[in-house]
Structure formats: C-alpha cells, structure tokens
Amino acid sequence: MPSTDIIFLVKYLYLIFFLSVLGYLILFFNLNSSFVDLDFYFYELSGTTLGFIILGAFFLGMIMSYLLQLPILLRKRKIKPKNNDS
Fold first, then answer.
1. Residue 85 belongs to some domain of the structure
2. Which residues touch 51 (CB under 8 Å, ≥6 apart)?
3. Count of domains observed in the chain
4. In principle, which of 20, 22, 29, 76 could form an S-S bond with 51, CB 3.0–4.6 Å?
5. pTM for this structure?
6. CA gap 72, 75 in Å, rounded
7. Given its phi and psi angles, is residue 48 left (phi above 0), alpha (psi -120 to 50 degrees) or beta?
8. ∠ CA(18), CA(19), CA(20), 5° rounding?
9. Whole-number Å distance between alpha carbons of 35 and 26
C-alpha cells in the first residue's frame, strides 16, 4: 500500500508548509511594529502597526483578485464537436 504512505507524507508536508508560512507572517508582523496613521477620505485609523497594514493589504488584494477571477473560473466549458475528417 504505497499510496497511503504518500498521503501520510503529504499531510506532514502541508503541515510543515503551513507552520513555516505562519511563522514567517508572525516574524514579519513583529519586525514591522512601528505605529502608523492610516488616513482615508472620511476616516482616520490611528495606532495600527505597519506590519498589520501591509499584511492586510496583501490579503485584501488576494481576495479581490479571486473575486475578479470567479466569472472565468465558474463559466461553463463549451464542448466542441470532434470533426471526423477520415
């Protein structure tokens, strides 16, 4: 049963990958701990750390990109008829 060994290995690789990304995000958040003021047109957000703003902008961009790709991902595929020229 070699397929169960591969699945077992992949689970641990996913866990190691997730923990390394989580550690990187925590490290990034702690290294950029200076407080900045975020000023919108009608609202000012003060006392927020730079790392949180950068990570928030990154994840907001990921979500916006996914939402803009949804129509392409969910459209129905048109099946082209096969031409038998022979």
1. no
2. 28, 29, 30, 31, 32, 33
3. 1
4. 29
5. 0.59
6. 6
7. beta
8. 95
9. 16
- SS3 state at 35: strand
How would residue 1 be classed by pLDDT, with cut points 50, 70 and 90?
A: low
CA neighbor of 49 nearest in space, from 59, 31, 62, 34: 34
Quick one: 54 exposed, middle or buried, by C-beta within 10 A (0-12, 13-18, 19+)? middle
Q: Does 23 map to a domain?
A: yes
In-domain check, residue 47: yes
* Domain limits for position 57: 2-70
| Residue 49: HSE in the Cβ half-sphere, 13 Å Cα cutoff | 11
- Read off the pLDDT of residues 8-64 as tens digits, 9 standing for 90 and up: 788 888 889 989 988 988 888 788 888 888 888 888 888 888 888 888 888 999 999
Residue 76 forms part of a structural domain: no
